[in-house]
Amino acid sequence: MICLNDSRGKKVSVLSEERILLDKLAQGDGDAFWQLWELYRDYLYHRCRVWMGGSHDDAQEVMSLTSLKAWEKLPKYAGNITNLKGWFNRFVHNLCMDIHRQREETVISSFRHPESTLLQQELNIYLRYCIDALPDKLQDVLILNYYQNMSHADISKKLSISQANVAKRLQKARQILKLNLSQYFVG
Questions:
Q1: The pTM is what?
Q2: What pLDDT is attached to residue 117?
Q3: DSSP tag of 3
Q4: Which residue in 12, 24, 84, 127 could disulfide with 32, CB within 3.0 to 4.6 Å?
């Protein structure tokens, strides 16, 4: 059994330390998560690499995703967990399987409907062309709103224009795009 030193220098078993950290986490101490994560990070990375077919990059991606998602979810369950290693292990395994499923669905859908994939790519190119053809003042507002998810208030501040002007420019940009896209689909 691995032993750690607590803050007073007293030897404490990992399981006791784990329980203390889980309790702290359940009470809202976010730093406790990272201490718990470090206890099992290497083990989880090796398991993850196996589940991701030996790919270091994929394993790193899953580990990053896992740490963020677990950091969000673990505090809710921390008080009830009796086997943290098993909890982390299942969490990583599920994420690996989710990623495999998503990749498989993407590949299958592109094989099933290559025409629709090509049509979607063509439409995206045409839409980008239409956006690029907009006057700069309309294009800027549209890009900030749709691609950077900025609110009207934030766009107003950034461009030093009123929120009413932001709304008018967005409406005008949408009208132009709608007209161009309807001509595209008719033609």
A1: 0.51
A2: 72
A3: E
A4: 24
Q: Give the whole-angstrom CA distance, residue 24 versus residue 91.
A: 21
**What is the DSSP-derived secondary structure letter of residue 143?**
I
Residue with tokens 């986490």: 25
Write the DSSP symbol of residue 79: G
Alpha carbons within 13 angstroms on the beta-carbon side of residue 23 total 6
124 φ, ψ (degrees, to nearest 5): -60, -40
- How far, in whole angstroms, is CA 117 from its chain's centroid? 24
- The count of other CB atoms within 10 Å of the CB of residue 25 is 24
d(CA 52, CA 56): 8
147 CA to centre of own chain: 16
- Read off the pLDDT of each residue in 86-94 and give the average, rounded to a whole number: 94
Total Cβ atoms within 10 A of residue 22: 23
Tell me, what DSSP letter sits at residue 147?
I
If residue 125 lies in a helix (H) or strand (E), which one and from where to where?
Answer: helix 114-133
Q: Taking a C-beta distance cutoff of 8 angstroms, is the pair 26, 75 a contact?
A: yes
Q: Are 92 and 47 in contact (CB under 8 A)?
A: yes
Burial of residue 139 (number of CB atoms within 10 Å: 0-12, 13-18, 19+): middle
N residues, the chain:
187
Rounded Cα–Cα distance for residues 92 and 42 (Å): 12
Question: For residue range 147-161, what is the model confidence (pLDDT) as tens digits?
Answer: 888 899 999 999 999
